[in-house]
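FAQ
Q: What does a multi-component entry look like?
A: The components come first, one per line:
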Amino acid sequence: MTETLTSSLATFIAEKILKQPNRAIGADESLVSSGLIDSFSLMDLALFVEDTFGVRIEDTELNAGTFDTLHQLAALIESRKK
Amino acid sequence: MTTFPERLKALHDRTPDRIALTLQFSNADDLPITMDGLMRSSAVYARAISAAGIMPGEVVILIIQHGAELAYAFWGAILHGAIPSIMPFLTEKLSPERYRADLATLISITQPAAILTYAEFEDEVRSALKEGDSVRAVIVAEQVDGKSELDFGALSGFQRQPDDIVLLQHSSGTTGLQKGVALSHQAVFNQLDAYGKVLALNDDDVIVSWLPLYHDMGLIAGFIMPILSGVHLVLQSPFDWVRAPYKLMQAVTKYHATLTWLPNFAYNFCAQKIRDRHLEGVDLSSLRAVINCSEPVRWESHQAFFEKFKGYGLKYKALQTSYAMAENVFSVTQSQLGGEPAVLEIDREAFMSERVAKSPMEGRPSMMMMSSGRPLENVKIKLLDENRNEAAERVIGEIALQSDCMLTGYYHRDDATQQAFADGWYLTGDYGFILDEEVFVSGRKKDMIIVGGKNVYPQDLESLTYEVPGVHAGRSVAFGMFNEEQGTEDVVIIAEVDSDDAAEQQLVADAIRAHVTKNSAITLRHVKVVDSKWIEKTSSGKTARSANKEKFLQELDVQGN
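Then the predicted structure of the entire assembly, as tokens:
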């Protein structure tokens, strides 16, 4: 389950945010603190997560402290799914 | 003729207990500050700056984030007669080394006498200092204290003259930091008088702003104008706003705000990203004007914004436009409040190839241009063709201006100041056309990229790209590409490498993304690594940004993107 979740997140980031559909996103690659995803795109990612998985990420959580990698984001989503 | 300190004192004497400023935070209650409170705490800073041995007329750099200390430090510097300049704070995205280098650049040209910052940032600042440079004091905000007594007569800012420089304003990046726009008291007041009139600014107005104070729009419209006009300002942090743009709408509702300024991208951002659940109870009917400024204004962005918020009391006539620049203090043109900005449908092809705004023709693609309004009453504008002759109506030319609120000069940069003027006219570097006195801004002559209202110099990004292993100097090009959906420009970098191996090119592309972002705080949308000979050069060997942009766009079209 986590694998499909991770791959759907990776696809969204590569296609919609980085505009490089073939770009592989490593599970432990730093995304936020590296600046790969900026504040504006972080909001897009949060909206995607909410629409796709029904999990809310609050605006105060949109920073590298909450999640910085695919792995951490997937874990966050899993923990909030009922 | 007056000065900032005299105006502050007059406002204080009139209504000391009026709320001048309300600060909002993401994790704390709103903080209202009266004019008396603002002056007393600012006077504490004025005395601290004086005690540090800083003389009136010397520059003090402020590196402080959103909060009461920033307001006190800024007005404290003014009350002492020093010249404040606000510099962005280091963010987690930017590398400390680059920040230090930028700070060192600023210090070497601007020659500040002091830097005012937080304790946690003191080491960072000190590491940018060199033996024998101009900085005599690093003032730590937490250590600034003293009795909050207020004796205007003892403050040396009252000795300043209207023509003296009152503040400096820098745009970001290595290039921007080398050109501090120096403004006099008189120039700022001339702007506020003319701009206040066209806005019909009055005591009942409430301005809400999330714009950073190191940009002209935030500094003037969202800070200095309300404070010096006696208008209540509600100020949010740009870092909080970008994560929670709905808080702007909630602030308008709570404080019945009447005026706010936004860069074009924010119209799209708010329209697309705000969830309806965050708009419960929101009422935008108090807004007299939401002013689109600091990026090319887009009719489509206004439509999207209105569609999203019309159900929350937003009036269509509240959507207004302005064209502004730090060199003119702020506003150059403003649309007429109470009406709608002029919108013109023009023939797309004639606009692109003949550089004329012709009426649309049957069966040919057209485009919508929205006016940025008419010149303020103290501003004269003319459009210059390539030979610097005045262009006819509808013909695109470079915008040149004259006013009584121009910069005194680029600080310590007489060379740059002289270059900026021709025959007494300031050459803006922006392109546009005039029709029926309405000014339509269509683009820039300079290659400057504007991302989310922030000016970015492509040469800064190209220099950073050359630092990435595998990329050779002179073999990269950076430019902006308009993103219809986001209402602002995306940054594109193209770089040549020797290798034609796809995997290796991908690695270099990743390295460019990481390095440029770390060193400019600019996120790149497209990074394209290409084989050698892809990039087109001019006969003098310089990279031709526009030619390469054309080539890139054509390839995107072919790929069906």
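Q: Is there any commentary attached?
A: Sometimes. For this entry: Residues 2-17 of chain A form the longest helix (16 residues).
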